[in-house]
């Protein structure tokens, strides 16, 4: 069940999340967004039970009914500024909302993984279809430790594992939406500075894939387009997509 009252009481945005569709169960909120190409700017699709979630790089996104926050916001391409840093700014909005509402300091792994105690608690998948960017957000909220199986137990965590307090999904959802609407209007410099401050691997040794090989380097920061700056040997190179380890 979705508690509309809690959602509405907490929603302070003007546009984002005002047009809203709830699904008790759905394969993927991003997938549903793609069937909805007349939606209002800021239209939000939310489900309590996402059964076939998509992650970045064709991965699957693991969700648990009533414990994961899984939603997509549809942005009309003509209505937004800061398009080029949309992945980074979405992670900034999530981290800000979590800090404001539950006073937890999350970090960000380039470009937009939400990290807590060096484990991933959330991710963002942005897809483009027709005149929309579909911003899909998945966050592990109320999962217990034994609910992550196999490799996931080593790399994933949830807010509950850290706080031992169950959260109302509707409340956090509304607060992320509020923060997203505010952040998207901020100037780029301000957003990128915040991102860098929350980066969990600044000046650290990392690895990334380049031309089919795993390359080592040092993460030096981001440029004005949000690309990762990595020092390999004596050169600094920028990468615009991929995963860093
Ligand atoms: C990642 O791989 O880090 C991104 C995960 C994004 C998952 C979210 S959950 C809501 C939305 N719908 C999907 O199918 N995927 C995104």
Describe the structure.
- With 245 residues, the protein is an alpha+beta fold.
- 27% of the residues lie in helices and 31% in strands.
- The protein has helices spanning 4-10, 29-34, 86-102, 152-155, 159-163, 169-184, 188-198, and strands at 20-23, 43-47, 53-54, 60-61, 68-76, 107-109, 113-116, 119-129, 132-140, 205-210, 213-222, 228-232, 235-239.
- The longest helix has 17 residues, at 86-102.
- The site of biotin has 20 residues, from helix 2, strand 3, strand 5, strand 8 and strand 9.
Structure, briefly:
The protein is an alpha+beta fold and 245 residues long. 27% of the residues lie in helices and 31% in strands. Strands 1-2-5-9-8-7-6 form a seven-stranded mixed β-sheet.
Q: Name the overall outline.
A: globular
Report the uncertain regions: none
Bound compounds, each kind once, are: biotin
Largest sheet: 7 strands, mixed
Q: How many H/I helices?
A: 7
Helix content: 25-40%
Number of strands: 13
Topology of helices and strands:
Blueprint: H1 4-10, E1 20-23, H2 29-34, E2 43-47, E3 53-54, E4 60-61, E5 68-76, H3 86-102, E6 107-109, E7 113-116, E8 119-129, E9 132-140, H4 152-155, H5 159-163, H6 169-184, H7 188-198, E10 205-210, E11 213-222, E12 228-232, E13 235-239
